[in-house]
Amino acid sequence: MAIKQCKTCSAEINTLGHQIYCDDCRYINCKTCHKRFLCKPAEGRSYCSKKCTRGWKLSPETAKRIGDGHKGRKTGKFVLCTYCKKESYKYPRTLRCDWKVMFCNKDCYYAWTRTSNNPVWKGDAVPENRRLRSSGQYKRWRRTIWKKDNYTCQICRIRGGKLTADHIKSWAMHPELRFELSNGRTLCRDCHRKTDTWGIKAKFQEIYAKQMACPLGLKGVKYIS
Known about the structure:
Blueprint: E1 2-5, E2 12-15, H1 23-26, E3 27-29, E4 36-38, H2 50-54, H3 60-69, E5 77-80, E6 87-90, H4 92-95, H5 106-113, H6 128-133, H7 136-148, E7 163-167, E8 184-188, H8 189-193, H9 200-213
Antiparallel strand pairs: 1-2, 3-4, 5-6, 7-8
C-alpha cells in the first residue's frame, strides 16, 4: 500500500490505486438537501442532483445585485400585439425582421391565423367537422378522457393498444356536448366500431331523428341500432 498526499489539503492517503484526494476533499455536503455525496474538487459541484439544483433560489441580495447590473442594457422596445392589443417587450433581433404583424405569444398567433385578417385564410372552405376534429381543443379533450380512464377500454377493460375517445351522446346529434368530459369515455378501436355512435351509424341516427320529426319528408330510411 502506497502513501500519497492529497492534492488539495496535503493529507496522507493510504491507497493502492490512483486516488489523489482524501475522503474529506472527495465528499461534500449538498447545499439544498445537505446530503453528503462524492464529488472531485476539480468538478466544482455544489448539488448532489438536478432536483436539488432546481430547488435552489437566489438570495434577495444576489437577485438585486444581478438586476441592478442589467439596468440600462435593454435596447429593445414594447410593441402592440396584433391580436390581443397588449404591449409586450421584443428584443432587437426580433425587431430587425421588420414584420408587419407582431404577437405577444404563440396562442395569439394561432388564434390570429384562424381569422379573416390572415391573408391565406380560406374562410369556410374547410368543413366545420374537420376543423373541430383537428383543433387543439379536441386533442386536449381526448387526452383528458384517456388520462381519466387510465388508458383502459371501458368495455373490454384492456389497457393500452389503439385507443379512441368515444362520445356517449353522438358528436353529430349533440354539438353542445362535444367537449364535455362527462360525455366521453375511452374505447379500443374494435369496441368503438360496435357502438351506435361510430362512423356512418351516427349519420343514420341523425336521419332517423329528422324522419321522426317529419315522417312524410324522408321515406325509406331505416334505423340502425
